[in-house]
TrEMBL record:
Keyword Transmembrane among record annotations: no
Needed co-factor(s): FAD
Keywords: 2Fe-2S, Iron, Iron-sulfur, Metal-binding
Organism of derivation: Streptomyces nigra
Source organism phylogeny: Bacteria, Bacillati, Actinomycetota, Actinomycetes, Kitasatosporales
CDD domains: FNR_iron_sulfur_binding_3
FAD-binding FR-type domain mapped to chain residues: 3-104
SUPFAM superfamilies, per database record: Ferredoxin reductase-like, C-terminal NADP-linked domain, Riboflavin synthase domain-like
Protein name: Ferredoxin reductase
PANTHER family: NADH OXIDOREDUCTASE HCR, PROTEIN RFBI
Keyword Cell division: no
Amino acid sequence: MPIPWRSARLVKREDQTASARTLVLEAPGWPGHLAGQHVDVRLTADDGYQATRSYSLAAPADGDRLELGVQSTAGGEVSPYLVHDLPIGAAVEVRGPLGNWFVWRAEQSEPVLLVAGGSGVVPLMAMIRARRQAASGGPFQLVYSARGEPDLWYRDELRAGGPDLDVRVLYTRQAPPGSTRAAGRLTAADLEPAVGRLTPAGTVYVCGPTAFVETAADLLTSSGQDPARIRTERFG
C-alpha cells in the first residue's frame, strides 16, 4: 500500500549552523518512526508546481511531532526556502517514515559505532537520542567529521556526552586552537581507536556525502570490519 502524504505545520525553527536548521513539524496522525528513518517533504507553489526532497529525522518518535535536519544547498530549489523563508505556522506535506535498513532499534544490545560527515550526523543524532530515551543498548561511539567548529550540528548536546557515549570530532578544513589533530580528511588512524572497542557483533552506521561514505566504508572494511555489519546512508 502506498505511503500517504500528510499535512504538517512548521511550529519551530532552530539554528544549527549558518546554513542549517532544525525544523519541528506537527503532522496529525503521524504513525511513528524508527531512529535513522527519513521523510519526503513536498512543497506546492501557487501555480501548482511541486517540488519534493528527502530529509532525515533527527529525533525519536514523539507523537505528532517531527524533527528534521535541513542543510541549505547553494542554488537549491527547496532547502534554502525551508532553512530561511518558510514561515512559522506554514503548511507542507510529508510522507513517511521511509527506510527500514539504516535504523537503530531499542532492542539492539550490541556496541555501535556512528560515523558522520557534515549533515550526515542528523539521523545518527536520532539514534543517540533514541538510545538515551530507551535507557538500553550497548555503548555508542560517534566519529564526526566537519569542516570547522562553525559547521558543527548539535554542538552543546554532543559535548555534554552521556552514559556510554564517546564522541570524537574531526575537522577537515580548520581545526580549533589547541586541537591535537591537524585538519584533514578521515583516515584509518582516526577510526582505529573506535574500531578497536567494537566487538565482532558490533554495528557501524555511516552517513554523509557519497565520497565520505565510500571512503569511510573502505577504511572500515580494510580494518577488518565485516561488511555485513556496516550500514550506510549517503546523499548528494
